[in-house]
Amino acid sequence: MTSATTTMNAAFPAEHRERLMRVAREVSFEAGTRLFEEGRRADRFWIVRTGTVALDLHVPGRRSAVIESLGQGDLVGWSWHLPPYIWHLGAEAMSPVRAWEFDAVMVRAMCAEDSEFGRAIAVWVGRVVAQRLHASRIRLLDLYAPYGSGGLP
């Protein structure tokens, strides 16, 4: 479930969206493709154009738990923005996916050059992190708590 404030169009004024999109590269992934693995280096991120990406969490001795499904307009990956730039989750294309891909080093440099742009990126990523943390908590309660999430909001 995506919050309207976490999509790129809602998060940025037009000039910041345009600036970010100037460094975007169109990519596509077949269903079943792993975009990244938990614990590996986070050097890029994506905004989904079409398709669905599942975020998952490694659970020792069990299959990875799907935490959230992302779709059109959603940011895939936030670990690129915060040191040590290591993925906190894994991600897999659940259907054919078309996305815009961004080089993390380039975007971080853009943030350093323009503090207003950098603040907008930081607020966007922060909102996404908060939303993903909430989704992870609810999903893990559903999977492992005796009474599930108990209808948490």
UniProtKB/TrEMBL annotation:
Pfam families: cNMP_binding. Gene3D superfamilies: Jelly Rolls. InterPro entries: cNMP-bd_dom, cNMP-bd_dom_sf, RmlC-like_jellyroll. This is Cyclic nucleotide-binding domain-containing protein. Residues 8-77 form the Cyclic nucleotide-binding domain. It comes from the Bacteria.
